[in-house]
Write a structure and sequence with these properties.
The structure holds 2 protein chains of 2 kinds. By secondary structure, chain A is an all-alpha fold. Chain A contains 6 helices and no strands. Chain A has 2 domains: 81 residues, NADH-ubiquinone/plastoquinone oxidoreductase chain 6, subunit NuoJ (Four Helix Bundle (Hemerythrin (Met), subunit A)), CATH 1.20.120.1200; 41 residues. In chain A, helix 1 runs antiparallel to helix 2. Classes of the chains: A mainly alpha, B mainly alpha.
């Protein structure tokens, strides 16, 4: 199926992502920031669909928006004190932080102006019927070792999170 | 205007760089530790967008597999980071990152 109205969807979704990102870093209430981050993650899943990556889009929605952000909301409800919302929101090194971020932005602009001609104009059309099967064949074939290490990492993270949050070890 | 209407890989990379910059600003300037952790998730998502965009450009699926591993890693890191935050909050009753200074000289 040929893609339709690609520029409209790209600019709409990237606008939603950037507005959501700005809301994440500027809201005083952490619950508002978490909701803005969920909107950003859902828009990013839609951009993954535009990039012919339906499995990564599904993983993003289920794991990231449905797992990690719910964990964030639980912890916000546990640690959120009422007086937090009435204080200042920027920390004591925000001037140095803004200078460093401006330097990073300048570096990005330099890289963009130097290297924007090396990308090919037209992208190859990719088949998306068997995307999940192809990813499964790579994940369990070529990247099997990394898969096992990732499961070990998740086990370590579970043990670490439980030990860290316990009242008495 | 013509080059802005045809969406190439470069558009996705610029979007990823903008998200990365927003995440870096959030990490460096906010006071609330939870929002700093959420800005780290923004940074990881920008990297994922770059990976999937390059995977589309080159045709192979290695970038998408790497993106799946990055999402797994972000889940593990968010869990441990929030566990540390809960342990810290139990001791000091604050989520202010300026007061995380027990190791200061």
């Amino acid at each position: 199926m040929a893609p339709v109205a690609t520029p409209f969807f790209f600019y709409l979704l990237s606008g939603i992502m950037l507005i959501g990102g700005v809301l994440v870093i500027t809201r005083k209430n952490p619950v508002h920031s978490a909701l803005a981050l969920i909107v950003t993650l859902l828009a990013q899943a839609s951009i993954y669909l535009m990039l012919y990556a339906p499995f990564v889009a599904g993983v993003q929605i289920i794991l990231y928006a449905g797992g990690i952000m719910v964990l964030f909301l639980f912890v916000i409800m546990l640690v959120s004190v009422d007086r937090v919302q009435r204080e200042r929101q920027f920390n004591s090194q925000w001037v140095v932080g803004i200078i460093a971020a401006t330097a990073l932005g300048g570096l990005f602009m330099a890289v963009y102006t130097k290297g924007k001609d090396i990308f090919p104009e037209h992208a190859l059309p990719m088949v998306e019927n068997d995307n999940t099967q192809q990813i499964a064949m790579k994940l369990y074939g070529q990247y099997m070792f990394a898969f096992e290490i990732a499961s070990l990492l998740l086990l370590v993270a579970i043990i670490g999170a439980v030990v860290m949050a316990k009242k008495r070890i | 205007m013509e080059s802005m209407l045809h969406i190439t890989t470069l558009h996705y990379l610029v979007l990823g760089a903008a998200l990365f910059l927003l995440g870096v600003i959030g990490v460096l300037t906010r006071r609330n530790v939870v929002i700093v952790l959420m800005s780290i998730e923004l940074i990881l998502n920008a990297v994922n967008l770059n990976l999937v965009a390059f995977s589309r450009m080159w045709g192979g699926l290695h970038g998408q597999v790497f993106a799946i591993f990055v999402i797994t890693d972000a889940a593990a890191e968010a869990a441990v980071g929030l566990g540390i935050l809960i342990a810290f909050f139990r001791n000091k009753e604050t989520v202010n990152i300026d007061e995380v200074n027990l190791l200061k000289w």
